[in-house]
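notes to self, project folder thing:

trying the whole complex as one job this time. last attempt i did each chain seperately and stitching them together was a nightmare. two parts in total, labels are on each line so i dont mix them up again. if this works i'll redo the older ones the same way
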Amino acid sequence: MAADQPASPQTSTPYARIDDRISSFVLRRSTPRGWLIGFGIAFMLSLGLFGAIAYLFYTGVGIWGINIPVGWGFAITNFVWWVGIGHAGTLISAILLLFRQHWRTSINRFAEAMTLFAVAMAGLFPILHLGRPQYFYWLMPYPNTESMWPQFRSPLVWDLFAVLTYALVSLIFWFVGLVPDLAAVRDRAKSRFAQIVFGFLALGWRGSARHWQRYHQVYFWLAALATPLVISVHSIVALDFAYGIIPGWHGTLMPPYFVIGALLSGLAMVLTIAIPLRKFYHLEDLITDRHLDNIAKFILAMSLLITLSYATEIFMAWYSGNQFEEFLVQNRALGPYAPLYWLMISCNAIMPLALIFKRVRQRPLFLFIIALLVNVGMWTERFVIVVVSLSADFLPSSWGIFVPTVWDIVMLFGSVGLFAALIFLFIRFLPVISISEVQEEAAQSAEGA
Amino acid sequence: MIMPLYGLMAEFTNPADLLQAAQKTSAAGYRKVDAFSPFAIDGMEDALSLHSSKISYIVLGGALVGMLSGFGMQYFSAVINYPVNVGGRPLDSLPAFVPISFEMAVLFGAFAGVVGMLILNGLPMPYHPVFNVPEFKEMTRDRFFLCIEARDPKFDADMTRQFLNSLRPERVADVEA
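result (full assembly):
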């Protein structure tokens, strides 16, 4: 562990060791080469995204493969996928906090960061998809000369409120959690610049008992508010679809199905970040095998639930006796997009079954591969939901096939790159594990011993 | 040269000692006492006999304001100010107003809670006398401090120093105001 400021032996209490280690990731002078390479690749991809956005603004959504009948292509697929990824961060930071699952402590910080950046990516796509992105604020109720109001019965307007609330609440939840750690970094910082920046961000936190009391209470309430919020957000995203009469969309299954899918993809993304992070920063004692094992079990549970959702979809299509719903099921499994459907089934429903075996859950490499596959599978699922239904609805004369253009693909991978670049910056410039919470855990376990 | 004194601060090396010291300080009748620690310590609220905080009510108030204003906005728009007749369906379609009312409740509740926490805690406060103690820099790392303020009616520079020393701290420091 190449910390730049090793603790002097006589002051090395367990609390000091935790603080020195985690703050050293932020305060070390030299940047690890692996970080530079990773960030460089991610940043190049982000530049691709920015270029594509510029071209999109210049030309219009015609640069994508969308047309009638498939008017919702990659942009909406990406939106649903990214919002979903954010949800696991809130699951870990809020729901597990309420259930007093103390093992969440060392993974909640970066899971929250992941939420924030994923929601930022998600927020980008509907705006780009508008066609006239400069008018995105028309969705908001604001005083205007035409005295117009948005249609509050529309899920698209609900969606704006839900995603915006989710982004803001995730941001303050994350920031409030960071404040004591920013104070710790402020106190460790050697350079004047770092002292001023972290001193500014830490708001003058001094660890007073009175402050801690209110702080803990508000942190608890934020978790209590974020828990139903996270479920509402993806339910509302699902209602964007369920309100339409298109086969495969128009069902009451959609909200829970979307929330489960969101948690599955988000937990997979947590593993995708956690496994390289703990390897390259040697955090095996903080992000332990138990953490990976628990997340893997969550993934397994969500995968089984998503399998149930897939089965329910097929059952309801048959049980409804509706020929369009029946045709949709056939078309998904055997139609032009069949390979994607089967990719989705194998990545989301079949591959994660390997997690039943403890030996698989204990091998970070296997977990990493499965997590990547689930990420791919969940993106494919969003694609199958969005595109297959639109491409063949009621009248065969109006059917059409969606083929992505190079700009669709650049934007998808560009958003992955921007997300990764933000994660890299976060790892470099902010404490990636909550110092005060890990110290509190250490104190409690010392007490129990 | 005598600097005005904000208080006296005792330094401890572990949370259990601080908790015990806080209990003894309260028992000795000191009221303007604060403990400083890198993380929250279980039982500290009782030891310092802190009042239960008002945060929960602030969150509730914010959530109610958010919910009512969210609902009111939709009702005003859809029923009074901008009624749109969609196939003769009722204008006051209450279930359709639930999602936004809920989101607004969450948004306002969360912001009220955080802003309330910051205001009650007096943050952001870049300067505070306790930062004048050079060792206080180590607080966020692994030090635990107990400060008795000079404005405590029982405060007497010598007596209080003696009392703090009896708690067996690492050191007792003057906090300059």
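what i see at first glance: The longest helix of chain B spans residues 55-81.
need to look closer tmrw
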